[in-house]
Amino acid sequence: MKVTLIDYGAGNVPSVERALRRLGAEVETTNAPETIAKAHCLVLPGVGHCGALVNALDTHSLREPILHAISRGAAFLGICLGLQALYESSEEAPELRSLGILPGKVTRLPETVKLPHMGWNTLKLLRPTRLLDAIPEGAYFYFAHSFAAPATGPATAAVCEHGREFAAVLEKENVWAVQFHPEKSGRAGALVLQNFLRAAA
Amino acid sequence: MSLAHRIIPCLDTDGARVVKGVHFEGLRDAGDPAELAARYNAEGADELVVLDIAAARENRPTFLETIRRVAEQLAIPLTAGGGIRSLDTARAVVRAGADKVTVNTAAVERPELLRELSAEFGSQAVVLAIDAKRAGSRWEVRVRGGRDATPLNAAEWAQRGVEMGAGEILLTSVDRDGTQSGFDVELTAAISKHVSVPVIASGGAKLPAHFLEVFTHGAADAALAASIFHDELQSIRALKEFLRANQMEVRLPC
Q1: Long-range Cβ pairs for the range B156-160 (8 Å, 24+)
Q2: Which residue of A61, A79, A126, A179 is surrounded by the most CB atoms within 10 Å?
Q3: Of the candidates A124, A118, A127, which has an alpha carbon nearest to the alpha carbon of residue B1?
Q4: Structural domains counted in chain B
Q5: Superfamily of domain covering A2-200
Q6: Which chain A residue has the Cα nearest residue B73?
Q7: Domain with B73 in it
Q8: Is there a domain that residue B77 lies in?
Q9: Residue B24: pLDDT band by 50, 70, 90 thresholds?
Q10: Tens of pLDDT along chain A (201 residues)?
Q11: How confident is the model at residue B146 (pLDDT cuts 50, 70, 90)?
């Protein structure tokens, strides 16, 4: 399985690459628009500030190639900020327009809890998703974020809660996304990546 | 659904090998960092911290290679630090495979460093390490491995650090470090209740009850220990089973 890993300078690119290679994937890291437009299996990682991701997409002219690949039916996996970028916009960078594949806006988690939401948390499954195949209920995943997507929406397959509920796993046809870091989530995380690779095959 | 309390082994290294010793004296070899990392990853550690505690850090390339070797073994987050004084060094540490960087003395000397790091990597990647020593009814911040006093109050410095961009506080009790007499619960509670970010308690761990106490009464979000794990005095899995039996939310790996 060949995976095109979008490298726009995000901190977690090497660890996502390592995790995919451990599963036997052939990984191509790139920021070349033409390569991304033609990809069959795309992964958009991200960690840090949402504005940095959206700006990087525009700096490298990656917005259209990503949307083009998705509309062609390429399997897509967004990780952390890669999930948040699928919505229309984010409160973290209100002046910027995100990819807008899903309706709604990413907002800051409430101040009633410690932020960032940092550490291992569990999921509440709303509907079946291939990403969570064979993963036991109650499995923990590693989160590190202060902003989060709305809980409800047509693509939300599982939610997590920290101060409020938010979308943790998305599935919409050939588009998948997770708010947690599968590359840092031990065996459960490796299973999520493996499920994605199977769904993409 | 609720956030699990984290158990974090710490590898103090001289750049290349894991070392141990009380208050940086009488250091002795405690193993290969990559081998220990692989073991902790398999045993259910929630994160790993690797520090370069060598007094003279002329061996930076060696430490970066150690980070690379450790990261290769992990499917959990990695924090690295020790002598990070500039954004350039932090970049090299992140490129070598660390998910978070930890800073201590350099942030005390130049707090702006925290802002630079969080602007570059996001605050979730910036861990402010504070070495605190009791001074009457308060705790003073110590630097240079706990040796040198500063005029800073630990609670105020923690708060300021968060405002400057730290996403997490790694709080070490200088009084308890190396004593195995339990975490400083009072210190941990004072800081944890004072800041809006997660706090990792460190210094003094030996028994499972010490961890339970620092999570319940100390309001710690995570707890860090070194030698009790290296010496196999305490297995991570048994520790977590004890905590779960005491109604603490912990992650037992599947």
Answers
A1: B157/B108, B157/B130, B158/B128, B158/B130, B158/B191, B158/B194, B158/B195, B159/B194, B159/B195, B160/B111
A2: A179
A3: A124
A4: 1
A5: Class I glutamine amidotransferase (GATase) domain (3.40.50.880)
A6: A18
A7: 6-245
A8: yes
A9: low
A10: 899 999 987 778 889 999 999 999 999 999 999 999 999 999 999 888 888 899 999 999 999 999 999 999 999 999 999 999 999 999 999 999 999 999 999 999 999 999 999 999 999 999 999 999 999 999 999 999 999 999 999 999 999 999 999 999 999 999 999 999 999 999 999 999 999 999 999
A11: confident
Task: Tell whether B197 is within 8 A of chain A (Cβ).
Answer: yes
Please list every residue in chain B whose beta carbon sits closer than 8 Å to the beta carbon of residue A14.
71, 95, 97
Peptide bond into A116 cis (omega under 30): yes
Set of chain A residues whose Cβ sits within 8 Å of the Cβ of B122: 11, 47-49
CB contact under 8 A, A115 and B122: no
pLDDT digits (tens, 9 = 90+) for B83-121: 899 999 999 999 999 999 999 999 999 999 999 999 999
Q: Which residue of B has its CA nearest to A186?
A: B75
CATH code of the domain covering residue B61:
3.20.20.70
Chain A nearest CA to B233, separation (Å):
24
| Chain A to chain B Cβ contacts (< 8 Å) | 106
Cβ–Cβ contact B168 with A under 8 A: yes
- Collect all residues with Cβ–Cβ distance below 8 Å to B163 and sequence separation of at least 6: none
DSSP E strand stretches across A96-149: 105-108, 117-121, 124-125, 141-145, 147-148
Its pTM stands at 0.96
- DSSP per-residue codes, B121-143: H-GGGEEEEEEEEEETTEEEEEE
* B54, part of any domain: yes
Contact (CB<8Å) A120/B125: no
Locate B250 and state its tokens: 């912990």
B176 C-beta neighbours (distance < 10 Å), count:
22
Could you tell me if residue B252 is inside a domain?
no
